[in-house]
Amino acid sequence: MSGKSSIKVACIQMSIIDCNKQLNIQKALAMAKYAVSAGAELLVFPEVFSTGFCYDNIENAAEYENGETIREMCAFSKAHECVMVFSIIEKKEKNTSYTELEYYNLGVCVEDGHVAGTYRKTHPFKREKQYFSAGYSIYPVRLPRRKLTIGLQICYEIRFPEVSRKLTLLGSDILVTIAEFPIPRGHIWRSLAIARAIENQIPHIACNRVGEGSDSLFFGGSIIVDQLGDIMEEAGDDESVISGTVDLERTIKTRDEIPVLDDRRTDLY
Prior knowledge:
The protein is of the alpha/beta class. It has one domain: Nitrilase/N-carbamoyl-D-aminoacid amidohydrolase (4-Layer Sandwich), CATH 3.60.110. The chain contains 6 helices and 14 strands. It has helices at 21-37, 58-61, 68-80, 161-169, 186-200, 250-257; strands at residues 6-13, 42-44, 83-93, 101-111, 114-120, 141-143, 148-154, 174-179, 204-208, 210-212, 217-219, 223-225, 231-234, 240-247. It has a 6-stranded mixed β-sheet. β1 (6-13), α1 and β2 (42-44) form a beta-alpha-beta unit. It is globular and about 55 Å long. InterPro entries: C-N_Hydrolase (IPR003010), C-N_Hydrolase_sf (IPR036526).
């Protein structure tokens, strides 16, 4: 469990101009500056926020792990002493070959200017499978400076209760979902975001894209849910920053009152 009793979190719900990395980063950091000026310490951004999926120009949109997006986010995180959670299109050499590339949807957690950990999306959705390799491990990210553990999952994975349950059992303090969930799936998104919090008795920050993409419309609906499944803050369908203070100590009290995790029948499932 975290060394902190509470933390102020923020979701940066933004529209994304597909394939325009510079403008997307500029907008994201402007919104992030507003969030930290209001006291936010943990900032969450939509999935592949700096490029969108950019399938038609994926090789140029993709970055190595030390690329532009991560450098910019690290610089901001260091200057403002905050945590930032996001994902990028990652490219890397395949099987040590310098001529063949593979791509991943790489989730990143940055703490005070340093990459604290990464997670490669393990469940690509439909068209994503044509471009992205699937990640091969599910582990939370531990933030050593804050003694905080983040369970990061990406978009489609909110539909898989096994992912958030594993992240919970491995000691996550907060569940974070970053997404590009499109219209018309707003009711599904909201229901699953609340359910993942309730069944694991864990705070959940679910941050979605808003606006028009190259082949989809996005409804936003970013949401911050507490350990009981109560909604702390919820966004509409426009660009916005939502925030709330998460009481981390409430997790212990919630699990003492309703011992869901202790009462699991691991001999049966």
